[in-house]
Design brief:
CATH superfamily of the largest domain: FAD/NAD(P)-binding domain
Bound molecules: flavin-adenine dinucleotide, nicotinamide-adenine-dinucleotide
CATH topology of the largest domain: FAD/NAD(P)-binding domain
Mean pLDDT: 97
CATH architecture of the largest domain: 3-Layer(bba) Sandwich
CATH class of the largest domain: Alpha Beta
Number of strands: 24
Structural class: alpha/beta
Helix content: 25-40%
Number of helices: 13
Strand content: 25-35%
């Protein structure tokens, strides 16, 4: 048995853990990171990156299929188009492999020691890891739990065989002819849309009255319209009940109380993710929880001295960039810097077609918090660049305090708007006012001009509408 003693031990090399370890290494802390699987976590291996690769491939394929119809407005005609899904998946795996190597190299450059294996707590300062070369005990002054999350499994629809999680969906080399998706949230709609573009017949079963229930109706409507165009059947207010005896159909109770049988080749269950807090001794530590998540304060400290937690294991929003920001902050705190969580906004993007971005408060949220607000909304149908890209659907919306014009929130829906999220987050982080957005020259012709115009609209003098 080998023993390592270190200043900082990070458990889990997802976006939270690996960023924390890199920053700690840069700051000269003697740091060890333990990872049971491949570096990069859910995001890099089976989440953000592979899903965006598949979405992009489906988008390209879908565009060429549209060109076969002879109805392409730009006059492009394609005679035939095919996709080799096994090759698409191999391409995706290649990207993931390059990034795995990149994360390992960055950790090494920061002089972080990487231990491969599953960490299990002996006590709050000691873990043991079963590695390929035997048992490794690690004692640390400070421990960061960054063990992430895993898909929620429904009791009536256990994973296995034709019932799959997003992880399996992102590695399918045969296209399902009929795909039923249970859960019309982020993953269900991102992947459901991609499979529809690839050629699957997709049905989405969502328990709430609207898909993407966390967003307001104005933002979701263009996505619903596009799902309709793609032939995706959406059942809202519907309950998934049980599998048929043959395991190839799902009994569903629809909003009007009717029973339906949905036949499928694959059933993708995407009803949320839960924190990974079992199987590694975390459950035996005396850590306070908020629901199933580890409770942390504004410095990501848990209820046990010397133990921090970051990322998905600490709850919503379960987003990679939140995990990374927490990881960077914790490394600096452990190194003695004065830091606390003071972010004004965590932008969220849904990579549907069209994409949705939100940062800060929506109009309803701002009103609920007691603000008198002004709202400016500018449609892409009045934006030249959007017209040239056949993407006139959607808008940018700015929400500001009526008294000071301080920007409280920004939202958008439209093709490719994800790249505007940087503008949104920066504006909120810097405490921008409507005049700052309106007075910033936005290059022409770009879709970002809609941000400037939305602010001008809120001020009462939009120029292009
Ligand atoms: P994780 O990435 O889950 O990493 C935790 C790591 O800890 C894992 O590598 C795991 O193997 C390791 N681990 C766990 N227990 C142990 C142990 N006992 N010992 C050793 N190692 C252990 N977020 C976005 O912001 N944008 C997106 O576009 C996006 N798309 C997504 C698409 C899908 C299909 C999914 C599933 C998720 C997506 N997410 C996205 C969410 C994002 O992946 C997570 O928010 C992010 O990965 C959380 O990072 P983390 O470091 O907290 O945990
Ligand atoms: P989600 O919370 O986004 O969506 C789950 C959906 O399933 C909800 O709409 C919910 O109402 C529905 N649902 C729950 N139980 C149901 C049932 N029994 N029958 C039918 N519908 C049911 O969860 P997800 O899509 O699994 O994603 C998990 C997390 O991963 C997200 O919360 C997000 O934080 C992260 N993620 C982010 C991105 C991104 O940033 N682009 C992409 C994918 C995932």
């Amino acid at each position: 048995m080998k023993e390592i003693v270190c200043k900082l031990l990070v458990i889990g090399a997802g976006p939270g853990g690996y960023v924390c370890a890199i920053r700690a290494g840069q700051l000269g802390l003697d740091t060890v990171i333990v990872e049971a699987d491949r570096p990069g976590g859910t995001c890099l291996n089976v989440g953000c990156i592979p899903s965006k690769a598949l979405i992009h491939a489906a988008e390209e394929f879908g565009a060429t299929k549209q060109m076969m119809t002879g109805k392409n407005a730009m006059g492009i005609r394609v005679e035939a188009t095919t996709i080799d899904l096994a090759r698409t998946i191999a391409w995706k795996d290649g990207i993931v492999g390059r990034l795995n190597g990149g994360v390992s190299a960055l950790l090494q450059k920061a002089r972080v020691k990487i231990v491969h294996g599953r960490a299990s707590f002996r006590d709050g300062k000691t873990v043991e890891v079963e590695t390929e070369v035997g048992l490794q005990v690690i004692r640390a002054e400070t421990v960061v739990i960054a063990t992430g999350s895993e898909p929620v499994e429904l009791a009536a629809l256990p994973f296995g065989g034709r019932v799959i999680s997003s992880t399996v969906a992102l590695s399918l080399t045969d296209l399902p002819k009929k795909l039923v998706v249970v859960g019309g949230g982020y993953i269900g709609l991102e992947l459901g849309t991609a499979f529809a573009k690839l050629g699957s017949e997709v049905t989405v079963v969502e328990a709430m009255q609207q898909v993407l229930p966390q967003y307001d109706g104005d933002l979701v409507r263009p996505v619903q319209r596009r799902l309709g165009e793609l032939g995706v059947r959406v059942l809202t207010g519907a309950k998934a009940k049980a599998l048929s005896d043959s395991g190839d159909a799902l009994a569903v109770e629809t909003a009007d109380g009717q029973q339906q049988q949905l036949a499928f080749d694959r059933l993708l269950v995407t009803v949320g993710r839960r924190p990974r807090t079992t199987g590694s001794g975390i459950e035996d530590l005396d850590l306070d929880r908020t629901g199933p998540y580890l409770r942390v304060d504004d410095r990501c400290r848990t209820s046990m001295r010397g133990i921090y937690a970051i990322g998905d294991v600490t709850g919503e929003p379960m987003l990679a960039h939140r995990a990374m920001a927490q990881g960077e902050m914790v490394a600096e705190i452990v190194a003695g810097k004065k830091r606390a969580w003071d972010k004004r906004a965590i932008p969220a993007i849904c990579f549907t077609d069209p994409e949705i971005i939100t940062a800060g408060l929506s109009p309803d949220e701002a009103r609920a918090q007691g603000y008198a607000i002004r709202v400016g909304q500018f449609p892409f149908s009045a934006n030249g660049r959007a017209m040239t890209m056949l993407s006139e659907e959607g808008f940018v919306r700015v929400v500001a305090r009526a008294d000071t014009n301080l920007v409280l929130g920004m939202q958008a829906v439209g093709v490719g708007v994800s790249e505007l999220s940087a503008d949104f987050a920066l504006a909120l982080e810097m405490g921008a006012r409507l005049e700052d957005l309106a007075g910033t020259i936005h290059a022409h012709p770009t879709r970002s001009e809609a941000v400037q115009e939305a602010a001008l609209k809120a001020l009462g003098h939009a120029l292009h509408i």
